[in-house]
Each structure stands twice: as C-alpha cells, then as structure tokens.
Amino acid sequence: MQKNDLKNLIKDICESLLERIDSNESSTKEQIINYLRDSVDTISNINDEDISSIEHAKASFNNKYKDILNQSLSSYEFSNNKFRELTQLQEQTIGEYSNNCIDIPTLTSKFDEIQSHMTKEVEKANKIILNLTAKVKILEEVSNLDALTKVFNRRALNTYLSDVCSNKDINYNIHALMLDIDDFKIINDKYGHITGDKILIFISNILRKTLRDGDKIFRYGGEEFTIILNRNNDEECSLIANRILKLISSNNLIYMGQKISVTASIGYTKLIKNDIPDTLLARADKALYLSKHNGKNKVSGVME
C-alpha cells in the first residue's frame, strides 16, 4: 500500500471512530476497543497490490455519501422547523390584530421582521446546500468507485492500467474487454433515463456474478464498461466474453411492470509488449467497433 493510501485509510478510521463516539452518549471503552480490533482485522486482510481490496477497506469504515445524506436531512429538518416557527409567528401576529383596530405601521414592522428572518433562513439553507454539493463533488473526484453501478470508475481504470503497463515483470496474459450496451440511446428515449440507470446496474450485477474475484470491472463512461481479465488465454477470453453476452441477452430487466430486453457488444484485445493504457484501450475499442459493425450482440478480437 502506498504512503498516501495508508494515510487516507488511517484518517478515515479516526474520523469514523470520532463520529461514533459523538453520536453515542454512552460510548464505552469496550466499544472503542472492539472497533479498533475490527479495524486491525480489516487492514490485515488488505492486499497491497489489489486496488479493490484497499478501496473496499476504506468503504467499510465510513460511508461518506451516507453521512452527507444524513447532514442534508438534518439541515432540512432544522430549516423546516425554523420556517414552521416563522409561520406560527405570522399567524399569531394576524390573530393579535384580527379583533382590534389595525395599526398599519406596527403590523408592517412585524411582517418586515418576519420577512427578514425568512430571508436569512433561506440564505443559510442555500449555503448548506452549496457546501454539501461541494463535498459530494470532492468525493466523486477522489473516489475509485462509480456512484451508480458500484463498480470501479474510469479514474481507477487509468491508475490500474498505468501500473500494469509499467510492470515489465508480468509473465501471464492480461486481456482488456470493452462492452457497450446496444441501442442504449433508443432505450433511454423510449423508457426514460431512470430505466437507463436500472439497466446499467443490471449489467454491472451480471458482470460481478460472472467474473472471478481477480478480474476487474470498470465503468468506462456512459453505457460502456471495461473488463480486465487476468491469467486467461485468447480462447478462454473469447468464451468468457460470449458467456457474458448470452447472460445479458437471456435475462430480461423487469421495471415498472415492463419487461425490457437488452443486448451488448464486446471487443477484446491482449496486453502486448510496450503497450501503454491508450494503445491497449484503442485496440479493444477497435474490436468493439467491429462487433457493432457486424450486427451488434457480437464478440470480436483484435490482437495487434
């Protein structure tokens, strides 16, 4: 594990522990000891060379997105209570003057005061929203996981392939597959973008269940996924790719009472001497183009 990964992991552990103590008035020494023991066990099981092992260890300590959601709900509840108080004050003011002669200057002053409070509360709420939005953006920039599908993102792919291509001592086959969902724009236009998101999750779940733990799944962008297979020959790679397509086409997504059929196309290639990430992915993309050109729902390979 690199020094920065180690520092970030320890920071996550400390922040999570402090948050647990703050959120529980009756925290005991035994609870803290048990938490630290769990932390030691998790760190001990990290595989330094496996990006997924490190990332999932971090995620096990603290779900940052969940924390931000809780902050949002808490802030919303606080603002909502404030507006409720101001509404009650406004009703009380109207009630006080309903059976009396209206003192226009005093009434105007009261309503101006209420309006001023409401304006300040709106400004506070907007600042909180901007702050939380900035936090989410930072998390998305530094995270290695795609927020929607929970597979690795393109940032993680770039890091992983840079390490692989710079390692001259690899003595086993590495294949890169590019998978693209067929006619995804038509599906989005017909069923809506929420359905499109469900399909992306559907595909990522099939990939997770089909591939081995040592293989890597990345969301390359949009409706495209990149898969890295380790320790397979060319024939095995082709068989795996065809098995993935068969599973996708033979399983229907049921959403909102509708049965939606999906197919995909795959192009694959093999890591060769002097490859860099761009050349490796360019060959896989070229193979994917052949699959699309040949009628979709196909597998094609380009090895050089």
In terms of topology, how is this protein built?
Layout: H1 3-23, H2 29-44, H3 51-61, H4 64-98, H5 104-142, H6 154-166, E1 174-181, H7 184-191, H8 193-210, E2 216-221, E3 224-230, H9 234-250, E4 253-255, E5 258-260, E6 264-270, H10 277-293, E7 299-301
Parallel strand pairs: 6-7
Antiparallel strand pairs: 1-3, 1-6, 2-3, 4-5
Helix/strand order: HHHHHHEHHEEHEEEHE
How would you classify the helix and strand content by structural class? alpha+beta
Which percent bin holds the helix content?
55-70%
Shape: extended
Write out the CATH superfamily name of the largest domain. Reverse transcriptase/Diguanylate cyclase domain
Largest sheet: 5 strands, mixed
Strand content: 5-15%
Per CATH, the class of the largest domain reads: Alpha Beta
Tell me what the CATH architecture of the largest domain is: 2-Layer Sandwich
Overall number of domains = 3
* CA-atom Rg in angstroms: 27 Å
Mean pLDDT: 80
Q: What is the CATH topology descriptor of the largest domain?
A: Alpha-Beta Plaits
Total count of helical runs of at least 4 residues: 10
Spatial sequence of strands, sheet with the most strands: 2-3-1-6-7
Q: In angstroms, what separates the terminal alpha carbons?
A: 33 Å
What is the tally of beta strands?
7
Give unreliable regions as ranges: none
